[in-house]
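Now for a chain:

_____
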Amino acid sequence: MVDGEWAEQRERAIRAHASAAEARRDAEVAEARELMRGFVREAGERGIAAEELTAVPFGGGPGRLRTGLRGWYLRADRSVAVGTDAEFYSLTAPGGLWARLTGVTLAPSRPRLIVGEGGRDGESMPLAELLKRRLGDESVGSDG
């Protein structure tokens, strides 16, 4: 095989692999979004009230920042939440005086089926499990 042909074949394989990986990520996001829509529906039916969501400044620091969002925290440290819009939010933002005075605007994150995947040991947990715990039972995801 000529070097040019080999390089072209290799490039096609790399593109195909990247495309397949992106398709897997898109499918994972779609599944996670469906879980979150079910959670929001179930929380509403059960009367589990949404609350004002706040963010912590990047790098820590005292206090929390207003976000203008309402939803349900999924972790005790209030680092992630599901909004009433059934979107997933990572609750960290740039801090500073202006952010403390005016609040911050957060964009939703692409949800993953494993929250915290790739983080430190003990920090990752299946999204479905976090949602079940927030509801206080095992109902989310069990009825399809």
